[in-house]
Design a protein that fits this description.
alpha+beta, nine-stranded mixed beta sheet
Length: about 260
């Protein structure tokens, strides 16, 4: 087995153990026993609904889990895919959606994989602010390296961008602290871990619905044409009352991590 145990001296006393799901298959059914902070509308994204729940079952060696005693307190999912087939690239503009679709297509056709991409790291709301996200990222990097990859990509969802939804992502990325690190906390975790920001995934995730559905998901009235700002969204949702639909196209940020693969 290739168990990953996070036991650095300054953090070992917190009782949190991080392993792959492959080493803890008993935790696979419990992967979603986490009080998370994802906005409700993300669960209505079609690729999420179709494929995300299968990731931990099909790729447990690429997924990591943190436990405190018998409680699951964090999960991290990644998937491998083949980036060199015709029409593919390592960092597609369709980001999160595209790599997840490619990963399952490659699994179905038993194709060799060339790279791995992170999908999410979710921390239980009761364990936020304790540095667990950086430890989960480190464990995911180790898991990917153990599978022989030299690169972990990540279509990162900047976790403070929702506070400035009207600001273009390109402008948001130019905002740095005096030490040169990103002002965004989640991008900063990746940068501190050695990741390099490479490009924007302009259409990483797409969620559509009627204005009535969006109102149910967000509590915000969709009663006018044009951009509508909703809680948790990185950019406004575009509403078209004439055609009775509203569409959210989320940009993410591609980050590259070099890992010590075999």
């Amino acid at each position: 087995m290739n168990k990953i145990v996070d036991s650095r001296p300054d953090e070992a006393t917190d009782g949190i153990l991080i392993t792959t799901f492959a080493d803890r298959p008993d935790l696979i059914p419990r992967a979603y026993e986490i009080a998370d902070t994802w906005p409700e509308f993300t669960s209505h994204e079609p690729v999420v609904g179709a494929l995300l729940h299968r990731v931990v079952e099909e790729f447990p060696q690429y997924c990591v889990v943190a436990t405190a005693g018998d409680r699951v307190v964090a999960r991290g999912f990644s998937v491998p895919f083949n980036s060199v087939l015709d029409g593919r690239e390592e960092m597609p503009d369709k980001g999160w959606d595209q790599v997840l679709i490619w990963a399952f297509a490659d699994l179905t056709h038993a194709r060799p994989t060339t790279v791995a991409s992170a999908l999410e790291i979710t921390i239980d709301s009761g364990h936020l602010g304790r540095g667990l996200s950086s430890r989960m990222l480190s464990a995911m990097r180790d898991a990917v390296a153990t599978q022989g990859h030299s690169t972990l990509l990540a279509p990162v969802r900047p976790n403070a961008k929702h506070l400035r939804p009207r600001l273009p992502m390109s402008d948001y990325l130019r905002e740095l602290r005096p030490d040169g690190l990103p002002t965004d906390p989640w991008l900063r975790v990746h940068a501190k871990a050695g990741g390099t920001i490479e490009k924007i995934a302009a259409a990483s995730m797409t969620t559509s619905g009627t204005p009535a559905q969006w109102h149910r998901w967000t509590g915000v009235p969709f009663d006018h044409d044009g951009p509508v700002v909703v809680p948790g969204a990185l950019v406004p949702v575009h509403c078209d009352l004439t055609h009775n639909h509203a569409v959210y196209v989320e940009p993410n940020v591609w980050v590259r991590h070099r890992v010590a693969g075999a």
